[in-house]
Amino acid sequence: MMDTENQMIRTLLTEPPPAAHTVASARRQLTDAIAGRRPSRPRRTTWRLSLAGSGLAAVAAAGVALVMATGTGSPAGLGETGSGGAPGVAAPPAGPRQLLLAAAERAGGTADSGRYWRVARITEGALYLPVHTKGETFYVAERWLTETWTPRDRGEQAWEGRQSLGYQPRTAEDEAAWKRAGSPRTFDLGAADSAQGGHVIRTMAPGKAELSRTSSRGVPDLPADPARLRAAVDELLEKRGIEATDAAVFAYLGTLLTDAPAGPPLRAAALTVLSTLTGVDNVGSRADVTGRVGVALELTRTAGQFVDRSWLILDPATNQLLGGGMQGATQGKDGRPDIGKGGKESSTAVVTAEWTDQRPVAPHGN
Amino acid sequence: MTSDPDVAALLASLTDPDLFAVLFDRYFAELRHYAASRLGGERGDDVAAETFLVAFRTRGRFRTDVPGGGNVRAWLYGIATNLIHRQRRDEERRYRALARASAVIDRGVPVSSGDDATVARVAAGALQPALARALAALPARDRDVLLLTAVAQLDYAEVSAALGVPPGTVGSRLTRARRAVREAFGGTDPTRIDEGTP
Description:
- The structure holds two protein chains of two kinds.
- Chain A has helices at 2-13, 20-40, 42-52, 96-108, 172-180, 226-239, 246-259, 264-275, and strands at 116-133, 136-151, 158-169, 186-191, 199-203, 210-214, 281-287, 293-303, 306-315, 320-330, 344-356.
- Chain A is of the alpha+beta class.
- Chain A has one domain (18-356).
- Chain A has a nine-stranded antiparallel β-sheet, sandwiched between helices. In chain A, strands 4-5 form a two-stranded antiparallel ribbon.
- In chain A, a hairpin with a 7-residue loop joins strand 4 and strand 5.
- The longest helix of chain A is centred in the N-terminal third of the chain and has 21 residues, at 20-40.
- The longest helix of chain B is centred in the middle third of the chain and has 23 residues, at 115-137.
């Protein structure tokens, strides 16, 4: 009998249980890793993970992400973000290639003085949490403001600021359900912690802003020459077991542009490489996560039942990159990712990308 | 969205890393049991601890866009299995040592009562050396499937998720592993019942 065989194997191999101090030590190793990771360099972790996941299954990683069709207006604190004003809605479809090349030109032409390369971005999505209250169910997502200050001089300290902007209903539908439930400001997400037996509570209120030292290696070490960049990205992807298709390269470089503190030359090269990819469509105007409208360039890849979309949003008036995002999930009826079934997505708005002499400060989103 | 509490904890840990410790509390004991079964107590301790560190670091890559929405427990077993592979020689050395050792009962291993257990206990005494030798001789891939089934008690779908191979492949590897184990027992297997499997 199979059960007997299995039992024999278990009996043969069984070892006495571990000593209590062994378990405690293993748990401490984990909690140390958890604690060590969070204050020091959360953002780097985030974007590396999201790159690792790009390709099919692509996903935004830790803690950041997108709200599609957000109906909640612009987030708090955006008034002081300092990047290009509200662009007009761009109806006429310009070629993706020209748009990307124009953006590349602008990215490379950014003023060449300043002590820090500062990138501020707002991310949203990644993780939608269901809230059940007063007979209503809606999804909420957290929004983050992160700022990286990468020194021009590699010997100087790099900094990273981070602040949660709180949780908000995900879509217009979610917002409607949230209003029917009495517009609560806090969300009880249920018992998620078996260790303590408590409930997980999330709130719409912004969190505490933090500024911490980070490694200056946060800037990816990639060549700023388009041909060499493409080769380097291909190699990186292959190394991770991802076939370096145009779609995978698009997803990777999109994340690089929106989530990494890549400086002007690298950004220009990345946009130039993007302009050489096939399958990139101008899908018309779309708002970024902060409500700014631009032209979305999108690339979709389908493999079996999975579909993976990546996009960038460019302001055709200023040739600026506004943001981007990605979605990966099982295909829905309309051929698009069906996020409701548990896929993932992430979206980022690049709020500022500039050289500055300003001293690093904690973000002040609210 | 997911209603699976493990997946919920894992996803929540993306924004709130502390929550990851929940998964340790849920699964450390059984992961350690699995690792210790394959590598012995001390190495098993290390592999189990390392499994959760690796899992924490790579939690952003956990796939929920799969049928069933992802299985955290199977994912953890997959990580542990990969770590065990790095110590394959030690694993096989352990089985050979077990083959030389005397009866299981002398090792003071508590065996729960129950029909299967009783039969196993009696049979294991006689068959332990053959079983241990067979485990040492199995190709690593077949051994993974056998031990994830027998020790971790995962089902086909879970083994498939843990190893990232199709369920059909799991089935054929398991069949192959079982056949090898039975052949090792030879005619001395008192529990042998022909199940008609190929």
